[in-house]
């Protein structure tokens, strides 16, 4: 039984044959610019929810957890996401303000990982984010928090059909 499951997993297709080109030598010096370029290409390629990413956090003892979130913005303060401060991730970020993001776009064989420190953005910005949610309907939520991840490392990864996968790393 478990052997047949193992075989089924082994037989699943991996990356599509038709993958985009990526030459790190031509990549912009600013990783946020490369992310914007890749996001445009993902949307043009029909990737659904390219702004969704997995966020990994840890509590003070180092116990890890992860979940999917939506990227809200990129600016000089960092990579923005929003959640409830009282949630598990909110409590973990209060105890240990560091996190790792991972974006994966299967149709293009692209992965982007971003890790660093997490800071709280302003009450005004958090309230605006809450108000812009489709279900907010004029309500307020004092528990809602906009955060910014300030990267110390970012890696763009491009799958290659010949398995010479390409990595482009920024140390900040
Ligand atoms: C694609 C996707 C996007 C999501 N976006 C958010 C988000 O932006 N903010 C949020 O708080 N939860 C979002 N969620 C729900 C979280 O994954 C998670 O279930 C919830 O925030 C509770 O996480 P926690 O218990 O680890 O704190 C999203 C889930 C999915 C699948």
UniProtKB/TrEMBL annotation:
Originating species: Arthrobacter saudimassiliensis
One GO biological process term: pyridoxine biosynthetic process
- Annotated gene: phzG
Q: Which domain of life is it from?
A: Bacteria
Q: What SUPFAM superfamilies does this protein map onto? A: FMN-binding split barrel
Q: Which residues bind FMN?
A: 67-72, 88-89, 111
Q: Where do the Pyridoxamine 5'-phosphate oxidase N-terminal domain residues begin and end?
A: 39-157
What this protein needs as a cofactor is: FMN
KW Oxidoreductase (keyword) present: yes
Going by the UniProt record, its keywords in alphabetical order are: Flavoprotein, FMN, Oxidoreductase
Record GO terms (molecular function): FMN binding; pyridoxamine phosphate oxidase activity
Give the protein's recorded name.
Phenazine biosynthesis protein PhzG
For this chain's record, the cofactor binding note is: Binds 1 FMN per subunit.
